[in-house]
Design brief:
24% of the residues lie in helices and 32% in strands. The chain has 132 residues and is of the alpha+beta class. It has one domain: hypothetical protein PF0899 fold, CATH 3.30.2320. Strand 5 and strand 6 (98-100) form a beta hairpin. The relative contact order is 0.20.
């Protein structure tokens, strides 16, 4: 099903109203977790701890909901996602100061340069799995 967003662009949603972005991420996450479980002979996933960057465009609650729906009636049913949001950090190319980027303001608080390299807060990573 497709709906129009307020900006007039179509956005894909499933029957639960969840944007397909988190659904596809949840599926990729499940595939990776299954692969790791198989490598280590694990039968049951209890939890997976994730780091989700502030600038990753992933909505943690939506990802958790999609994961729960997609793992129901599977060997992963009941597994919990433990999500930590990683703040956006940058380093100034001019003065080399490292800082947390607040309110998406890409300006060095020391020298006011806008020449900033982001060094954290953009990724999604699986940090740990608890299995039986």
């Amino acid at each position: 099903m497709h709906i129009k967003s307020r900006q007039g662009r179509p956005e894909s949603v499933n029957r639960y109203g969840i944007f397909m972005h988190e659904m596809s991420i949840a599926q990729s996450l499940i595939d990776i977790l299954k692969e790791e479980m198989a490598k280590h002979g694990a039968g049951t996933l209890r939890s997976a701890r994730l780091h989700i960057g502030q600038l990753s465009a992933i909505v943690p609650d939506s990802l958790s909901f999609c994961f729960e729906i997609m793992t129901s009636d599977t060997e992963m049913e009941g597994a919990k996602l433990i999500i930590e949001t990683i703040p956006l950090k940058g380093t100034c190319r001019e003065c080399h100061h490292t800082f947390e980027i607040k309110d998406y303001t890409f300006e060095c608080p020391e020298c006011k340069s806008t020449e900033i390299d982001t060094i954290a807060g953009q990724d999604l990573s699986i940090v740990e799995m608890e299995v039986d």
